[in-house]
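Title: [Solved] GH18 domain-containing protein 3D structure

Original question kept below for reference.
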Amino acid sequence: MDRQTGRDRQPRSACAAMALASMLALAPVMSVPAGAAEPRVPLPTPFSMAYYESWSELPGVSGPDTLLAATPAHVDVLAIGFAKPDLVYRGDLELDGTGIQVPVSGQVLAEAIAALKTRAPSIRVLISVGGSGYMTGWSLYDPAALARLVRDLGADGIDLDYEPADPGCQSAEARRGPTVVCLTDTTWTRLIAQTRAALPRPMMLAVPAWSTGAYGTGDFLNDRPPSPHTGSMLWLGRDREAAAAVDMVSIMAYAGGPAFQPERAFDAYRAIWDGPLALGLIVPPDPTGQTVPDMAGIRDLAARIAARDLAGIMIYGMLGTPPGGGDPSSPSGMMMLQAVCEGFGGETC
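Solution (posted by the thread starter after getting help):
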């Protein structure tokens, strides 16, 4: 999930532009399963989400004694990172080949999820697939194997973290059209359709979204910083069937550099997506120099987000600790989650 600074987009050749238009015109449109038209999986308002870094788990412990089982009860959605898109999973909770790097057995991981859900019955546990560590392998995406893993672990759905290195976007100006179009638009349609076919509702489907992914059109035409990913998530406002299959969007609103404005990005996504929307924060320091709020700043941000409809905050990652150990000016992931809860006005923080 770590981000690199967006680089200035270079002009594409006429041949590349023609190839883009041709691919978009000829690409088959995949129908989202009818079950996706069912109501979205409900979430509280406001809601909090956290990413659990499986590789940071304590080795050799039992399920109830894991860090996962100790997830704060005020967290509403927990995403376990990360499975490979082209995972191999034959069953029996054998995690070799899945990409999940937890230093315990699959049986212990399942017991940890069960223990957490006993203590926090309303929490939704997702398996996050992809991320910046598994950017390749999507052409061999195996949603059926992923669905078996989700069910065997006792999880509640998928966090579909598709992060292409270059989404192949063409700006509205270059197209002389009203919006950005990207080569990955049809890939998103395919991945969502395949995932929903394997895991229909009431299983949950969340989508992490690039920081600048809703920029490049309308009131957000020229928002900074320029990035190859500008406009890469605008399909959420165009592809109604795919968007209807999604239950939640979380904005990876970090690693955007000093010019990036997270709440402006939230406004851009809200303009195209009316469902549950989380604004993401990263444990400091941000690798691109973007400001990470301190504890007081997080509480203030959470209070502003709480005033919006169907809104929440995401923290990446729950187990992260800044250099030096974390303090109110440079908080750890757990401290950030506590500040979010306090900003939301929670009574059990």
